[in-house]
Design a protein that fits this description.
2 domains; 7 helices; five-stranded parallel β-sheet; alpha/beta; Rossmann fold; 198 residues; extended
Length: 198
């Protein structure tokens, strides 16, 4: 009897470990584990999420989410035009063509918000919009309840859309005109408008 009890205990322990391992959602990170851009992404993953890196996973792996830590300006331009240069962008493009969503933790162009000419910065903002239409979006955990609006005229519709997205702080251009209805709507919805210099 002691051997039967031992076997049953071992089987229960193995099953428990298998169940706890499978309870965590696997998140595919499109980078190497030693890439410096990975650390901030890992800090934003949920407690029930486990990172799996694209260079160490098998072909049959189905992730709950796919995240690319950093998308450079040139990578954005290529993807926006449906081009893939290199294995990383090929993987991203393959996922998008298959209807899979891909999240981006950081877009390089946003680092140049204060220094880039407005037209150039707006070009990359347009690329981001195009990529959003393809299924490539900013990482949800990265959002800090704030957003940036690059329009010169801020309307009530902009405020309503921000409110629907859960945004509490809306950064607008320093020279943007805000309509009176937009101001009233922002007060009513509890959205703070901040003018930023560019």
């Amino acid at each position: 009897m002691a051997i039967d009890d031992l076997v049953q205990t071992i089987v229960q322990e193995v099953l428990k470990r298998l169940q706890s391992a499978s309870a965590r959602e696997k998140v595919l990170i499109l980078a190497r584990e030693d890439d410096l851009k990975v650390a901030p992404v890992l800090q934003h993953l949920g407690k029930n999420e486990e990172a799996v890196f694209w260079d160490t996973t098998d072909a049959g792996f189905i992730p709950s989410r796919t995240i690319i830590p950093f998308l450079s300006c040139s990578q954005m331009a290529d993807l926006a035009q449906g081009r893939s240069t290199g294995p990383l962008l090929k993987k991203v493009l393959d996922l998008l063509l298959a209807g899979e969503a891909v999240e981006v933790f950081e877009f390089e162009y946003r680092q140049y918000e204060k220094t880039a000419p407005r037209a150039l910065y707006q070009l990359y903002a347009t690329y981001e919009e195009v990529l959003r239409g393809y299924g490539l979006q900013r990482m949800a955990a990265e959002s800090k309840n704030s957003a940036r609006l690059s329009r010169r005229l801020v309307t009530e519709r902009d405020i309503i859309e921000a409110h629907q997205q859960g945004i509490s702080v809306l950064h607008v251009l320093s020279d943007a005109q805000v309509t009176p209805l937009a101001l009233d709507c922002a007060r009513e919805k509890g959205i703070q408008l901040q003018k930023s210099e560019r």
